[in-house]
């Protein structure tokens, strides 16, 4: 490990960055350095601009908006915080974000999806993600004592934004988790991986999700995050206040949660089109 990389990692740890964020930022900076085959210490604003243009103009496969955003954030941190050369990235602008509506499963499709999950453990994981509206990183990090059956809540430790929070524990989910616990007897992590003292990986859960989608014959693209989106939308359609949904999801801003108003069918169906309020036709045909 180079001294610069070590210093950047230490700088992020001092600022309490999440381990996953540290890993991603280090990767993005390493790829930037490999592109020029030079240390970032020897590169400047023109090089950053050339690299970002390369990312968006790659013929074979342009970088995704997520990858591009991560690259910008990583380079900004490196030059501003670690190298102390903030002027190098002062003119770097973030691209306009694409606003795409999330894929939502109907309650019937959610039930169909769960029926297709063969493994009891995988079914318990995916059902927990939906029933509590969890991110995949949150569901794999759950520990046995995070399930509080007395208060009927689930504790989430250091979730996104390095914040603890609580979310609901469904009585039906509690029954399923008890059945799973009796069968597997986890002791530390609720969903351990192959190594008992480590949790199952997010990749393994996403693979299980993909297999269930294929087995269920769903035409929609389904990920663990789709279950989270569906949880929020179904709550909204059931009449739950948007601010309560915001708290359950752990969103900082209500604007983030408000996206579900755009995909809620009950919201759309409850709004009458002005076309329906027009007077009925008189029966005469318009003249050409």
Describe, in plain words, how this protein is organized in 3D.
The mean pLDDT is 86. A three-stranded antiparallel beta sheet has the order 1-2-3. The chain is globular. The chain has 288 residues and is mostly helical. A hairpin with a 3-residue loop joins strand 2 and strand 3 (163-168). The chain contains 13 helices and three strands.
Detail the topology: elements first, then pairings:
Layout: H1 3-14, H2 19-36, H3 45-57, H4 65-82, H5 107-115, H6 120-132, H7 136-140, E1 147-148, E2 153-159, E3 163-168, H8 171-184, H9 202-216, H10 224-237, H11 242-249, H12 254-257, H13 265-269
Antiparallel strand pairs: 1-2, 2-3
Short description:
This protein has 288 residues and is mostly helical. It has 13 helices and 3 strands; from the N terminus they run αααααααβββαααααα. A 3-stranded antiparallel β-sheet has the order 1-2-3.
Keywords:
3-stranded antiparallel beta sheet; mainly alpha; globular
Q: Report the structural category.
A: mainly alpha
Q: Report strand order across the widest sheet.
A: 1-2-3
Radius of gyration: 24 Å
Mean pLDDT, nearest integer?
A: 86
* Secondary structure tally, helices: 13
Order of helices and strands: HHHHHHHEEEHHHHHH
Strand content: 5-15%
End-to-end separation: 79 Å
Number of strands: 3
The oligomeric state is: single chain
Outline, from the CA principal axes?
A: globular
Largest sheet: 3 strands, antiparallel
| Low-confidence region ranges | none
**Level of helix content?**
40-55%
